[in-house]
Each structure stands twice: as structure tokens, then as C-alpha cells.
Specification:
heterodimer; A: alpha/beta; Rossmann fold; four-stranded antiparallel sheet; 10 strands; globular; B: mainly alpha; flat
Amino acid sequence: MTGPILDVRGLTFAYPDGRPVLAGVDLRVAAGERVALLGPNGAGKTTLLLQLNGILRPASGTVTVAGLPVTPRNLREVRRLVGVVFQDPDDQLFMPTVRDDVAFGPANLGVRGAKLDRAVADALAAVGMAEAAARPPHHLSLGERRRVALATVLAMRPALLVLDEPTSNLDPVARRELAEILTGLDVAVLMVTHDLPYALQLCERSAILSGGRIVADGPTGALLADASLLAAHRLELPFGFDPAFGRR
Amino acid sequence: MERLVRRLPAQVKVAALVGFALAVVAVPRDALALHAGHAVLLAAVVLAARVPGRALARGLTVEVPFVAFALFLPFVATGPRVEVLGVSLAQAGLAGAASLLVKATLGMLAAVTLASVTRPAELLDGLRRLRIPAQLVEIGAFMLRYVEVVGDEWRRMGVARAARGFVAASPAAWPALSRSVGALFLRAYERGERVHLARLARGYAGPTGAGGVPATAAQWCAGAALPAAAALVSATGLLGGWGA
């Protein structure tokens, strides 16, 4: 196996007012691996996520994506390699039609003509939204919009898919449909979530970010079975959920 | 003195601003020197109210479109022309541009001064008490409440665009930016609808009466000092033949 798709080392970051958010984060994701990033509100999960494609710059430490350091010079390639799906699909979808929106990313990378059409068609097919290509995004349901948002980054053929709270506000069917799509993709996934059963269902490995550090990193089932670890970092399983029972 | 200015009811301050602006624009464009008097009066209020210089400078950026228009005037106006550095400019255009710039600057500084000595909510109460149509005040109140929310949405959309490799470095980026603005407008519009429904659900049946406090006669008199003095400057100048 080659090196990791994502390699974060000693990453620190503070807000402009000096408040530290990330205090030395180390995290690796291998090619094709699905990893859940868990942690309480305010742990710095979204901040970490924005470091992965260079939207925020670290105070110290490094981020390397597929062997490519995240530096201003590499931003274009890094943003192709790291596909971020934001929590609110409305932030991501702004073009008049779904097709235009999915084409936006690859077009920014210089893809044109038949190649662009194919990239759009493939990405929409991958999320089961091919029929919606001509529809305006704001007329879709939240579940559909989230799938289109996923397609907008799949069209850029990323090596790492970064999902910020992919299940928030989804109904159970949309949640399951998204899981089926994600498990069918041949791409590494880093998923920020509070949905612990979803992490268990989709990710063989999880890391807990708390107080700006990765405080635990291991098999998801083992982490979720450690009640004191969860409690120490304000994580909680839904009522009645048994992580041992949920394991497939 | 600072407390006096800040404590005046908002309706008094708004009326003073309107009066001052009217006195400034009443001056013909050939009588530019009269505006020095207006500037001194305004400076006295700014100093008395301790308006931070940075706020004034930031407020003046709103003036940029007027400046652009004023710079344009000497080139397009008709009538006798003068040579300036080898460029032929219309005299009337130059006078018009100078007058426009000075009036816009004075008006803008006065408005920024009002904004820095009055809290936004007070301002709305003041407008209601001045019998500004309630719907307009409601729109203003809505804007105040949601401008930050919409600004935040715009920022998040920018991050999401950048995450997909978008760089706004040339006019080629304008179509994507304009679509973003369109999407933001739609979302703001839809949010407005949702907020309205949520208000209806809580029994909203139209704008309510004015809040704030009524102004006393003494406060109206204090507030009238600036516009009255400004009007006096304009009037003495005009009667003295400045504008002839």
C-alpha cells in the first residue's frame, strides 16, 4: 500500500482573537478508508475540515494530501483531491440547475465539453440524481440536495471525501440512501458527525477530536463501547443503542 | 456635552440630520465657500459627541459611487470649457462636481455621526415617532436583524465555492458570483417568508405602535441647534450675495 491519502501532523490553529482551536492534531487516513471524526460541539471539527483543503492555514504543523503538501502553490490540485461536502447543501448549491451546479467544480479545473458532460452525468448517476439534472436545486428535498451536493464534489474525482455532518436533519430513509451511496463509492472518506450509529455503520475507524486534539483513534466499535471515554468528551449514544448489537 | 448628544431622542436627531442636509443642499453650486461654515458646525457636533474618526472614515466609503459620478461630470457637461493639464473640461461640470462632492461628504458625515450616536433600535423608534410609514420601518428593522445572518450565509457560500477550486481573479468569475448573489437573494427571500410565517404563528397582525420616548420641547430645541445654525449660514451667505 502507498502512503496515506491524508496525513495531518502537529496541526495547530487559533482564531484571530488568539483563542486556540486546534492544539496539535495528528490524523492519517489511508486510501479507500472511511474514518469518522467525532467530538463535542466546539471541539474544532469544522475548523480542522477547512484546513484539509487550505481554506484555513495552520499556525504550525502540516497537512499532506496524497503526498502533496497543502500550501498556497498546490491549492488548485489540493481542492480537486479533497472534496468537501458542507453541512448545509444550500451553501454549496447556487446555480440555476443541478447540472450547472455539478459542472461548476470540474469547470473550475478546466474540464470542458464532452468530458465535462460525462463527469456531470457520472457524478449524478453515482448519487441517483440523474433525472434531476435540469431541476433547480432549491426545489429539491433536503435529502436530494445533500445528494446533489455530494455529486458536486464527486464530479471533481476527489481522492478524499470530507463530509460535515452528512446526516443532519435527514429523515431515516434519506439517511439510509446516503449510506448506501457512500458505501458504494471507491474513495477515502473522512466524516465529521454526531451521529454515532452512522459512524459505526459506515466507518471501520473513528477518531475523537476534543479540546483541539485527537484524544482517541481506533476501531469505531471499540470506541463506542467505551462509555467512560464517550462521557469524558461529551459524546452519547442514542437511547437504547447498543454498539455491540449494531456491529455487522 | 457628549451625553447630551447621545441622549437626545432618536426622532430629534433624525429631524436634525434632515434639517442639516436640507440647509446644505440649499446652497447654490457657485457658493461653495458657504460649506466651510457647515463643516465647522458639523465638526463641533462630531467633537462634542466624540465620534471616532475611524467610524467616520468607514462611513465615507459609501460615498464612492458619488465620487465616481462627480469625476465623470466635467467631461460630459456642456458649456464653456477650460484647459486643465491639457485636458478640456466643462466649467459647469467642474463646479457641479465640486458642489456634489462637498454636499455628499457633508451629508454622509452627518449621517455617520447620527449612526454612531444612536443605537439602531432607537433609530427605528425615532423613525416610527416621526410617522415614517410603518411598513418602511418594519423593512428597516428586518434588515437590521438579518443583515448579519445573510452576510454569514454569503461568507459560507464563498468558502463552499473556494472548496471547489473557484478563484475570483478575473471578470470570468463574474457569472458565478452573480449566480451566487441570485441564490443568496432567493434564500433571503425564502427566509423572509419563513420568518413572516413564524411571526403570524405568534399572532402578528401588522406593525405595532412606536416605542422609545417622546421628546420634550427642550430636547427639540437642542436638536434644532445644528440645522438652525446651518440654515443661518446658508441664508446669510445667500442674502450677502454669495450665490449671485
